[in-house]
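Onboarding guide, step 5: your first structure request.
Type a short instruction followed by the sequence, for example:

Predict the 3D structure of this protein.
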Amino acid sequence: MIQSGRASLVVVSSETDPAVISEMLALTPTRVEHKGTVARSGRVRENHVWSLDVDSLDNTGDDQTGTRALRALLMRSDPAFGRVTDLPTDCDARIWWSLDSDSTQGGFFLPADLADSISALGVDIYATVYLDEGEE
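The system replies with structure tokens like these:
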């Protein structure tokens, strides 16, 4: 069963400065990486990366769906609804959603209201479930 999740709204751009992305989306990112800077790996970044992140949120007694982080991200992204499609053409915006399971089965649940909100934001979602390795 899904136990927790993380979610990020990420915009990658080849030319558009992250400050312009912030202004256009009316959001303050939690992380910015500038094109041309050196990553920890030693590689020079080829693109700007703008990211609004929600760290890991566990399920609660009231919500066992694993969608808390995704819901929180969509609530924080509210000012950007209707603005993402106005970003310059060099910008690629998407949601990254990661879930942690306590089993070797990786299904997850996406309620219709969240799917509607993702659609209204105007981005695709890329989801990954990390599975427990199970007993050997």
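Each response can be followed by summary notes, for example: The chain has three helices and five strands.
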